[in-house]
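Whether sequence alone determines local backbone shape is best considered at the level of individual chains. When preparing material for the folding task, we compiled for one chain both its residues and its backbone structure tokens. The sequence in question and its structure tokens are set out directly beneath this paragraph.
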Amino acid sequence: MPVQAPAIEIQSPASDYAYMEYRPCQPLMPYVACYWSLEYRVTSIQAPLHRILPDGCVDIIFNLKARTASASGFVTGLMSRYEAAILTQEQSLFGIRFYVETVRPFIHFPASEFREGPVLLDEAWGAEVNHLNEEMVTALDSARRIELIETFLFNALRRSSLHSEPLVEQGMQHLYASKGRITIHALAEKMNYSERNIRRAFQKELGMKPKEMTDIIRFQNLLQGMRCSKPNRFPEIAAQYGYYDQPHFINTFKRLYGMSPKQAFQP
């Protein structure tokens, strides 16, 4: 499952900032990496920094404090570098994190259409989604929101005949299997397609080059390895994922995470 910063950075039990992840039901696992919630209550303590990492996923997010139901749901696309926001207002968010290669039935358009910034959910789905927006806002807890979402997703699957570009779906499976450690030349040989065709398919469907996606998947696997290890093993783990040069490793980590490995994993 993709890793996000709040799952790495230690949260104080007394904190007014709470991030949680929830697994989808078995039939939806090929499509949904996880559901997640974020709650923040403003206090006199210094406002926290909420960090979002590139994870190769597309999210549908519900702002449970939106002024109108129609403005509560929106879609966010792929990221190629980290983003960070200082939380100065109360937040209550619930999200669905989709694998990019299987998200098409749920957003109606290629993921490339969402690279420029968030798009309101009713622009992708039409007015039919407003009832879901209202139910998500008024639901009492995350368990109920997951029930609502899974009903909605199953209905969407039954109604939709949309699928991502097969070349992209197949390519992504190779990227996952290699943990991002595969060249585009090797990928083309495995798939029996030209490098040009693969690049074109990725750019059209995802709005991202295959090399950018391999970098993200490799980084995500690196994070998972570091998360389960002691700091003295970080150089060894970095080398396992092809980061043999320490300055290059740290610069890449800072670009994708926004801080050094030592800062990110400090106790």
Summary: Residues 107 and 124 are 6 Å apart (CA to CA). The mean pLDDT is 89. The chain has twelve helices and eight strands. The beta strands are 17-22, 32-40, 49-52, 57-63, 73-76, 83-86, 91-99, 119-120.
